[in-house]
Amino acid sequence: MRIRAFLLLIMALPPAVFAQDPGPWSRAEVPVLSLPDLHGRAHRLSGYRGKVVLVNFWASWCGPCREETPSIERLRRDLSGEPFVVLAVNVGEGPRVASRFVQRAGMGSTVLVDRDGDAARDWGARALPTTFLVGPDGRVRYRHVGAADWASDSVRMTIESLMFKAPTLQVMAAALDADQGAP
To answer: For the chain, which end, N or C, has fewer CB atoms within 10 Å of the first or last residue's CB respectively?
Structure first.
């Protein structure tokens, strides 16, 4: 019943409520995120340490969510092979409804199911979509409410700045060789 009231409230709000500039996360602690995926397998945010994680709270009925989904997928594909993952958290719907949307939208992200909306509440996702960028250290770095172009150059640069780029062995060897040749 609380979910229905929450959804009705969101649908009654004007679109301007859904637009907010991305900003830094102001809470000291990161809420736990432990949810099943569409196949019932458990996922924990802590299991993605070492990667930048885009956590996107969405629903299939949400127009702005549907609007931004292609850019999230483009970003996910563009950063394939990098320490980056998208966790798309479906709020208030079951796996069957979420799966239908995922198939129609061609989503390749890991989709988690927050059927009762508890995780969304814990994360302060009061409007949909709400998206968080979590650094490789597990700390939330940014929060954005409303649809965004997640494949834009500025977003990509922000995400890349959060990635810990470990030097390759070749670069390390070249640096050691340079140091040995110096007087």
So the answer is: C
- 59: Cβ–Cβ under 8 A, 6 or more apart, which residues? 7, 65, 90, 91, 92, 93, 128
Give the domain CATH number at 18. Answer: 3.40.30.10
In which residue are the tokens 């458990």 written? 42
Q: Please tell me the distance from the alpha carbon of residue 30 to that of residue 13, in angstroms, as a whole number.
A: 28
Span 77-114, pLDDT tens digits: 999 999 999 999 999 999 999 999 999 999 999 999 99
Half-sphere exposure for 156 (CA within 13 Å, toward CB): 15
What separation in angstroms does the CA of 68 have from each of 65, 138, 183? 5, 24, 56
Q: What is the tally of structural domains in the chain?
A: 1
C-alpha–C-alpha distance, residues 70 and 57, integer Å: 15
Report the 3 state secondary structure along 100-160: HHHHHHCCCCEEEEECCCHHHHHHCCCCCCEEEEECCCCCEEEEEECCCCCCCHHHHHHHH
pTM of the model: 0.78
What span, in angstroms and rounded, lies between the C-alpha atoms of 89 and 58?
A: 6
Range of the structural domain that residue 46 is part of: 2-181
